[in-house]
Amino acid sequence: MRIPAHSVCTAIRDDIVSGVFERGSRLTEELLARRYGVSRVPVREALRTLESEGFVVTRRHAGACVAEPTELEAADLLEVRTLLEPLGAARAAQRRTEAHLKVLRGLVRLGQDRARRGEGDDLRSLGGWFHETLAQASGSPGLIALLTQLRHKIDWMYAVEPPARPVDSWAEHGAIVDAVARGDAQRARALAAHHAERAAAAHRPRRRPGAPGAGRVRTSQPSVNSAGVRN
Prior knowledge:
Residues 2-69 form the HTH gntR-type domain. Keywords: DNA-binding, Transcription, Transcription regulation. This is GntR family transcriptional regulator. It holds the Pfam family GntR. β1 and β2 form a beta hairpin. α8 packs antiparallel against α9 (185-200). By secondary structure, the chain is mainly alpha-helical. The strands form 2 sheets. It has a two-stranded antiparallel ribbon. Strands 3-4 form a two-stranded antiparallel ribbon. The longest helix has 25 residues, at 71-95. The chain has 9 helices and 4 strands.
């Protein structure tokens, strides 16, 4: 059975974001095909996609390598997200469905409940799902793709400090959903802009590992053929 290139692409991207493949390290088709249990064809297609997304670069005499973004490029990502997320919220206020609202309200209830209880372990994941659903509610495939790519890159380049008062952060999420539910695009945009600016201030650049053995790869990753693939 031929494994879709997008599944291989997701697996490689996840390994880049999580630091399995360090910045600047080589990505050979043979190594990747063996790691994920696939042929070189989907690996080659996946590398082309990841190069277009900025995660991979092709270097003379070295081939495909993990990209090494500059500090300026990393800073630009946060600025772009503070511009696009408010646009997504405004469009969501105009295009959201009842299904989107149901999911958003459920996530806010979960987030607020866990924040009040001091159960912070899952709050970042819940926040990610919230913003992903809000982007989906915009009804704009191009905007959804951009925000998804930004989220992956920011996770790759930044560590995030948890908010000092998670209850306040989830109150902001709730206010955004209320504006989206009312169809108030202007208020949804303003609230999302404020929230994005506060979130950006909590991001700290990840340090590039400098220990000996840089570029080595862990071998515990399940193959793409297994049930553990993340899509």
